[in-house]
Amino acid sequence: MESFVKYSKTSPFPIENLPYGIFSTQTNPCPTIGVAIGDKIINLKAIKHLFTGPELKTNQHVFTESTLNSFMSLNRSAWIEARKTLQNLLSKNNKTLQESSYSSVFVNQEDAKMHLPVHIGDYTDFYSSVFHAINCGKMFRKNDAPLLKNWKYLPVGYHGRASSIVISGTPIHRPQGQVCVGENPDFGPSKFVDFELEMGFFVGGKPTKLGERISIEDAEEHIFGMVLVNDWSARDIQKWEYVPLGPFLAKNFGTTISPWIVTMEALEPFKTDNTEQDPVPFSYLHHNDHYNFDINLEVNIKAKNSSVSDLVCKTNYKYMYWTMKQQLAHHTVTGCNVNSGDMMASGTISGPEPNSYGSMLEISWNGEKPIILTNGETRKSIADGDEVIMKGYCQGDGFVVGFGTCTGVLLPHI
Questions:
Q1: Predicted TM-score (pTM) of this structure
Q2: Catalytic machinery residues
Q3: Which CATH number fits domain 123-411: 3.90.850.10, 3.40.50.300, 3.40.50.720, 3.30.470.30?
């Protein structure tokens, strides 16, 4: 495909991508639905009347809202129709948007402020990378098997805090809480703040009712698209609190997401083999079709007093053990209802080698092996003033489907 919008072959936002986001500008401060192409954003509110297909002709209003929830609550055929319409309008041979009367529908990304793309009602974080789970088991259960017995039978997860999910670029304050390094606990700022390299998907389609479940066969109809996720963690707080009920304050102080939602249709060419699962999952979790994705991921840390950033992790989403379909089917097998805009994250994504570990907990092996940054400073966790920069992309034949960046600076505690 070729677009009349000019961009380089390394642009993360070619016509093959077309991710959705919410933006505003100084001249138009109202949050508006947009689609990224090259270094531009196309204002969908300004061209809503051009969506004239059978699914969207009577639903053009969804593009006038300040979040993507209503658009995402339509069925998958409407999402596919919107994508085909946009690709047609942005193609080199279609003159509609090339006319001078449409010049104002394009906004420079550098002039835009990005907002949370959806109203996130609920957030669930999974624990679905087998390499990450094994590493944690080796560190904290040295005399036992690294994986608990249930891990390969079900996608382990916990319900997170939706209110503290923030858009890329939002600073995060170092949390305070109880920690216990000796016999008795103490209260104070966390001394082991960590990043967790994750990816999240947004639930779409018609909301389900309490008591309904989403079958593994229907799960794809409810998966709209994906973002990068940094699920910040306070390891020392977590160590003291997580038994017997799991993460709480160690995880609720901030979760950062990238601003552009890359649709599953854009990711279709990058499907790859699912991880072989042994034992074979129960029937409600079993699917033979490929629903794993070849997404390159990396994490850089830029220290406060440094002019350069240091690459500390290079991994891939394909290392996931449990698929998004399995996560959604398991989440709802009880009859738990889900709504458009709910977010579900993968859990830390780690690969098999030390340079592919997706958290400082693993990279520094619980602080035993600090890393050395370019400026000579050492790190076993994130320091005040550090910026954590996550990137993700799929490499196509002559094009890139990218997620942009997911960034956040850690500030001192309040």
A1: 0.97
A2: 132
A3: 3.90.850.10
